[in-house]
Amino acid sequence: MLIALWAQDQNGVIGKDGKLPWSLPNDMKFFKEQTTGNAIIMGRKTFESMGEKALPNRVNIVLTSDKDYKADQVLIFHTVEEILHYIEQHEGKYYLIGGTGIFRSMLAYCTDLYRTTIESEFEGDVYFPEELIDRNEWTLTKTIPGIMDERNHYPHIFELFTKK
């Protein structure tokens, strides 16, 4: 099962200067709950933006065109086809976590989408490629309102979509 998992602002911003442009602990908790014990797939830039350290209790997969790229505790693949072959051979849940290039390359293979929408605007330099999501192919199956509190300052919702 291949699932795209991301957070965006209301304009589709997903990053700025290699980081998230917001702090939203509820979203980090949701991310951890979904991905722990499963696999995450990311591009090299996303991996490097996380401090070049594998996230614990997950299979970490990095897609890069750099044939010499090395990282500890990470599976390195150089093509989408290699990743898809690996997924076919190893059951489980695989989460695409970014960046834009990974979403562009692999979104068509996803069965589910988990999107956190932060109902605010942020400055950013990386956007989710919304044009890749054909609304006729996806059904919104669940909406979970995010709770605002002293640590979570932005209104947000978690949306789960399933491919028709």
From TrEMBL:
Protein's UniProt keywords contain NADP: yes
Enzyme Commission identifier(s): 1.5.1.3
GO BP term, pick one: dihydrofolate metabolic process
Protein's UniProt name: Dihydrofolate reductase
Pathway linked to the protein: Cofactor biosynthesis; tetrahydrofolate biosynthesis; 5,6,7,8-tetrahydrofolate from 7,8-dihydrofolate: step 1/1
Domain of life: Bacteria
Keyword NADP appears in the UniProt entry: yes
InterPro entries for this protein: DHFR, DHFR-like_dom_sf, DHFR_CS, DHFR_dom
Keywords: NADP, One-carbon metabolism, Oxidoreductase
Gene3D superfamilies in UniProt: Dihydrofolate Reductase, subunit A
Every DHFR domain range: 1-163
